[in-house]
Amino acid sequence: MTANQFSVDVFKHAFMYPEQKMIKSGYPRNDILSAPNREELSRNIKEKLGIPLNKKSYSICSNLA
To answer: Is the pTM of this model over 0.85?
Structure first.
């Protein structure tokens, strides 16, 4: 996955990766971080995953295929 055509050009050259295998999709969406009900969303996710409500949590998601 690439963010833009510039990245496609760089990856194609730097990693010798074929352009037809790249997906130019832009950056991952993070609209949820500014959603008006983000506190409710956060609480629901924490409850589902068993994370204490008073703890901060972070998620690192790789886009490697």
So the answer is: no
